[in-house]
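Illustration 12: 6-carboxy-5,6,7,8-tetrahydropterin synthase.
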Amino acid sequence: MFYLTRKEQFNSAHKLYNPNWSREKNEEVFGPCANENWHGHNFDLFITVKGKPDPDTGFVMNAKDLGAIIKDKIIEKLDHKNLNLEVDFLKDKLCSVETIAFGIWNEMEKCLPENVQMHCVRLHETQKIYVEYFGE
Ligand SMILES: Nc1nc2c(c(=O)[nH]1)N=C([C@H](O)[C@H](O)COP(=O)(O)OP(=O)(O)OP(=O)(O)O)CN2
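Figure caption equivalent — predicted structure in token form:
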């Protein structure tokens, strides 16, 4: 099995806020990330797919095609957007980096060629924080 990874980037605004909690509790748990006037991140996104190389090309899939899918289905929707308000697959969700990675996985999974599967969504929210989601 081979694993092919493509890196892309997007910049987005969000807030971490649980509407079932008081403002005080949100501030206690999420700190400045609960700021009601939003805050932003430069996200680094690594999408890894897996499969067997096609004998005619030597490719699991063409990395350019993978890039086109990521740009069309993910970056176009998230870049320079408010994740809580403007992104169909994140709307009204608690937009932690985990939730965003999970949403990206689900969007990507629908768009891959038949012989290629998702392996990992790795999403860096800051220089110090990232998640990896492997499905399930
Ligand atoms: N499990 C998670 N924990 C945290 C998330 C998250 O999505 N999942 N998100 C945040 C904040 O949104 C944000 O990422 C924190 O940024 P920042 O305050 O800059 O935190 P850093 O650790 O990168 O930087 P420091 O300056 O060291 O605080 C918080 N937790």
